[in-house]
């Protein structure tokens, strides 16, 4: 009787171990997208215009899917300079024009590229934020920001 109880216990423990081994971090679908700025660097001084570039991990920009149904790991970007203060066509060009068309002008500038250029930004300190967005423009959750100066360092 003790042997059959012990054998049954071993089977349960081995089976449980197999289940736990089957679950884990090797699942590539569990990767979370991330974004980081490669330019401008935090604390840098920039001239005019300012071109920002981001690095994406576990995320692909899908220009043809913008406005469509969400697809895991695919979408576009929302850049916001000084909480949207410069997210107008005058400053962010075609991205600002798209923001105006979508009714988000003054909030963010949508982008289907990992770069954006702002022009005519006044001298001083500025903070640029980028959010990874799903196809329907909802926030995916990954965000990065960088703070930089515009103008010559001697003007501060």
CATH topology (level 3) name: Immunoglobulin-like
Profile the largest sheet. Answer: 6 strands, mixed
- Between the first and last Cα atoms, what is the distance in angstroms? 86 Å
The geometry reads as globular
Task: Give the fraction of residues assigned to helices.
Answer: 10-25%
CATH superfamily: Immunoglobulins
Class inferred from helices and paired strands: alpha+beta
**Strand-residue fraction?**
35-45%
Please, could you describe this protein's structure?
- The chain has helices at 2-22, 89-102; strands at 34-39, 45-46, 50-57, 60-61, 74-81, 109-111, 115-118, 124-133, 139-150.
- With 156 residues, it is an alpha+beta fold.
- It has one domain (30-151): Immunoglobulins (Immunoglobulin-like, Sandwich).
- The strands form two sheets. Strands 2, 4, 5, 6, 8 and 9 form a six-stranded mixed sheet that branches.
- The N and C termini lie far apart (86 Å).
- Mean pLDDT is 84; it is low at 4-28.
What's the gist of this structure?
The chain is an alpha+beta fold. It is built from 2 helices and 9 strands, in the order αβββββαββββ. The protein has helices at 2-22, 89-102, and strands spanning 34-39, 45-46, 50-57, 60-61, 74-81, 109-111, 115-118, 124-133, 139-150.
Strand-helix topology:
Elements: H1 2-22, E1 34-39, E2 45-46, E3 50-57, E4 60-61, E5 74-81, H2 89-102, E6 109-111, E7 115-118, E8 124-133, E9 139-150
Parallel strand pairs: 2-9, 4-5
Antiparallel strand pairs: 1-3, 3-7, 5-6, 5-8, 8-9
